[in-house]
Amino acid sequence: MKKTMGKNPPCKTPRAPRERTAALGNGHKSFLAEKRRDMRDLHHALGAQGAYRVGPVVREALLNLNKLPFLSTYDSSYDVFSLHDGSDLSINLARGQKRVIFTPAFISFKLDRKNPKSIIFWKLIVRWTREKFPQSKVALMGDTFEIVSQSIKNPKTNIKEGTFWIPSKEIDERLAASREFFQGLSAFAKSCANSYRR
User: Fold this and answer.
1) Checking CA distances to 147, which of 15, 25, 156, 187 falls within 20 to 30 Å?
2) How far apart are CA 71 and CA 134, in angstroms?
3) Global pTM value
4) Domain boundaries, the chain
5) What CA–CA distance (Å, rounded) separates 129 from 14?
6) Which secondary-structure segment (H or E) carries 89?
7) What are the strands of the beta sheet with 71-75, ordered from one edge?
8) Region labeled Disordered — which residues (predicted)?
């Protein structure tokens, strides 16, 4: 029998997985591991085409929106809908992403990681400015499910921003492609924009 004096005895318990160890010891490593899992599931949901692309199931639902009266064109490469009044309605399915936009209206969808094809909530950001819209980054994600209205005015650029959170009941691509949903959304966006123009 070998002597173990002066040495640490061998560990009999199996080592915990790396992600679990990170969760116990370092919070930022756990956060990064969760982000990697989210991005992996996101790319799987989007057909592994990147954050600015949509998968075939969602793309089919979005293409059906061209039949709606208030939509004129749909650019699948940038996921942008153009309204008849010249404004843009931008669709993005990326979770926790920051994006440069020049649009007065923006819709953000959050995907459920357990069921990537289902959309669990959406939010609308209405932007309006008297001058040319400057380049800016807008955080797209939030954790609340309440209706929140925020007004921020920048005197240098005369920007007024309104953020509206709207709760929903497990809407999926069929509801997202429905006529009533986006007709009401268009009317809501225009009413918000008109209220900020006054």
Assistant:
1) 156
2) 25
3) 0.19
4) 56-197
5) 60
6) strand 88-92
7) 71-75, 80-83, 88-92, 105-111, 119-129, 159-166, 149-154
8) 1-26
